[in-house]
Amino acid sequence: MIVVENVTKKFTHKNKTINVLNGISLECDKNQVFGLLGPNGAGKTTLLRILATIMKPTSGRVTIDGFDSVKEYEEIRKRIGYLSSETGIYDRFTPREILRFFGQISGMAKEHLDTRINRVLEEMDIEDYADRRIDRFSTGMRQKVSIARSLIHDPQIIIFDEPTNGLDVMARKIVKNSILKLKQMGKCVILSTHLMNDVDELCDKIGIIHKGQMLSYGSTEEIKNQFNAERIEDVFFTIIGDNYEAQ
After folding, report:
1. Which positions ≥6 away from 221 have C-beta within 8 Å?
2. Could you tell me the pTM of the whole model?
3. How far is Cα 239 from Cα 242, in angstroms, rounded to an integer?
4. Within 72-195, where are the H helices?
5. Long-range pairs, 61-69, Cβ under 8 A, ≥24
6. Most buried among 6, 201, 224, 238, by the most CB within 10 A?
7. Which of 51-65, 88-102, 153-167, 203-217 has the lowest mean pLDDT?
8. CA 62 to chain centre
9. What is the mean pLDDT of residues 54-59?
């Protein structure tokens, strides 16, 4: 579903070139959760924005469901749901109203949209709350609505940037169950997170990046075996600890 080939991203600031991504390559298929790990400033969000066609790579190539991210970005956007760490929802709306609004701006036909709204509400287990205002919801429920919004156009690829950041234990559990459900539905999920326990529970494959470089990449079990570790957290601190310098 997703193939990233030798992607670089450079920015110019005050006549100085900053290399944010340096030769990143990875693959993720349907029925998989791919964990993108790294400290702050590693380049994770930049990579996610490239996958979501919000940014273009400086060099290299990204193909999603066979479409080129630069030449065929409109086709890719039909197939992607993107939940950024900064995305909010409208407190005065109900989940049903939010889904209808985002379905309409995605160009969905009305006769199909109503059916799809009911389907997403059911899939995310929020049909009992569909007509209640968001401002009455818990943090976990609000995040479930945000996830539902990213799914309204039935994308095959879902990109999550820190979806459990700042949530309490119960809210995190709700979101993690939602991610597992997406995998079971045959979706391809990209997950950026700092929470290593979530990675052990959710991810089939991982990539650890630091200063824009991919330091480790492979299946979760392969990487743990490679480092003789029981937890990805141990692997992460071994890799990043050996390469970390104060920013």
Report:
1. none
2. 0.88
3. 5
4. 73-79, 95-105, 110-123, 139-151, 169-184
5. 61/3, 61/4, 61/5, 61/6, 61/7, 62/2, 62/3, 62/4, 62/5, 62/7, 63/2, 63/3, 63/5, 64/1, 64/2, 64/3, 64/157, 65/1, 65/156, 65/157
6. 224
7. 153-167
8. 16
9. 96
* CA separation for the pair 163, 178 (Å, rounded): 11
Residue range of the domain that includes 64: 2-21+42-194
Whether 76 is covered by a domain: the verdict is yes
In a domain, 201, yes or no: no
Residue type, 90: Y
Q: What are phi and psi of 193, to 5 degrees?
A: -155, 155
pLDDT, tens digit (0-9, with 9 covering 90-100), for 64-96: 999 999 999 999 998 999 998 666 788 899 999
pLDDT at 86: 67
First-to-last C-alpha distance (Å) of the chain = 34
Q: Is residue 238 part of a domain?
A: no
pLDDT of 168 strictly over 70: yes
Q: Please state the domain count of the chain.
A: 1
pLDDT of residue 245 exceeding 80, the answer is no
